[in-house]
Fold these 3 entries.
Entry 1:
Amino acid sequence: MVKKKLKEGRTMKEMLNFVKPNKNLSIRRQCKLLSVNRSNVYYMPIVESQENLSIMRLMDEHYLDHPTYGVLQMQDFLFSKGHIVNHKRVRRLLRKMGLMAIYPKKNLSRLGIAKYIHPYLLKGLTVTKPNQAWATDITYIPMKRGFMYLTAIIDLYSRFVVGRDIFNTLDNSTGLIKMGIFLEE
């Protein structure tokens, strides 16, 4: 009963915080009581070497300019900078950094799984005057630490930018109000 209450809603990391060297209870006994493997207690993660960190920094800076580069192109780039690295190492480091080459994926035109597919309301409508129909576009601008999002609302007839602003989040609650556009529901 006590064991169940202790384990309820806790992660493995939190459970490992309970295991401490003690005179009365050995680490083996504490791990058995908490149902935690002893290897988790003794495991020390290996940090990346300075060489790998410098390679990762080079790849990260280069990725901002060339986001379409894959493993082999990134390997060629590193070779031009004087780093002789294996493609397996480049792939591992790119995965560790969470970087992936941007390219068209398979089945882009296939519909995804959606609860409800909204109909296209402008189908068959000819836009003949200003302020009859607007479109919106959102793009991101990479910054030194994170991204800023540029939102623009465009009049479809005149291609005039009705409203624009830059935000640091994609929160929709304040964006349109801040831009001076109020939508009726």
Entry 2:
Amino acid sequence: MLGEQYGELKGKITGQRVLDVEGPTIETSVSVSGTLKGVSVQEILTFIGTPTAEKGVIHGVGKGVITTMGGREGGEPEMVSYTGEGIGRVESSGSIKWRGSVFTRKQYYSKTSGQTLSSSESKGEEKLSFLNNLVGVFESEIDAAGNFSEKLWEWK
């Protein structure tokens, strides 16, 4: 069942490179910011896109890291890593509309030790604890100028 929308992010492509000309396979990196359940976050995402047998359709597999703003909002910064997979459809305008799913794994960063801690070792307020083992679905779009926008919903 589709749950409530928990995130909205906007940003821009920061880089692209060709990994293989057979296919072709293209790696794209994106930097975005926005909110997840009202918490200000920044995200970096890298995904690999490969055209499918259907014209104008791309299969993408990606990995990303989400971080809270930390000091400005109080508390230690938190980090969440995730993997995702989706299908993109190239529009006549040159934009690509993506639909897919993300699988998150909560991590905590300790400023004092510089080590990643498990959720059982973390202390204090956990702004992104709702992302622990969350499965989400997304709609995103990259326009012809490289602008990126995304909305996320929990899949219950």
Entry 3:
Amino acid sequence: MKSVESLTMKTENHETSDTNVLFSSPLLRTPLSGSVANAGRHYELPTPPVSCRNLMEQALFGDMCTTMAPMDHRRAGWPVASLVDFATDSEGTPIFSLSPMAMHTRNIKVDPRCSLVVEMPGWRGLASARLTLFGTVRKVPDDKQDLARRLFKSKHSEENMSYGTSEFPLYALTDIKDVYYVGGYGQVKWVDPIDYLSSAPDKVCDRAVQDPLELLNNVNAEYRLRIPSLYPDCSRAKIIAVDRCGMDVRLKTGEGHYVVQRIRFHGPAESYGEVRDEVEAILSDGFKKLRKSR
């Protein structure tokens, strides 16, 4: 279980439409004339800060983007991305266990400015939710190294971490300057870092309550073969994200195309049992009806 403690390394700084029909196509995330439509408020999604916190809890890895240091004469001064595993403290501060020999570790000793790109696990592509955190990577103070290591190990078992990763010095992305969130094609938002750090993830995504990836795997094992019955011309489905308001489902059409749809729950779900109840209700009674706006 994740500790509720924080490293305290902080930043400086529905109603829906009046249609009253069955919601047969909750959220189709597809390109719209080469641009992006902000559809989030129509579909009872979590707020952008909560969506960011949910994603940070669910994802195991991210791309750490640093500036190549002069000691690496090849492409010095150029941006470079490295895949890293990470955990978070109770405020959403990313924590890394970094090898002193790694290129990104050498880079941040010269220029600690960094961006961290995190995607929803298990589904890559422009319809996938992702966020970018902008901040400064610094070594965790010696008196907080043990706390940071507990948080890191609570998220990363020996099976999914790189060899020896958990024993390297711990670093944190501090002084978060900005957060850029893209919820697939449907939602794009710059999130105030104070809003990000002060928000809490949904309970179904919070590792202090339960493992969100285990919950997702269990829901898929139970329902992924039944989800296609909800849609015409759907040959395959996979639940790629769950939050208290609903779930995102990747569908494969009869023509072989993939789309991501939003299925809204009838009520908030805060545990695996409540998620199961919501999915069972949708499978038996259909999608949630849209209420008239006042």
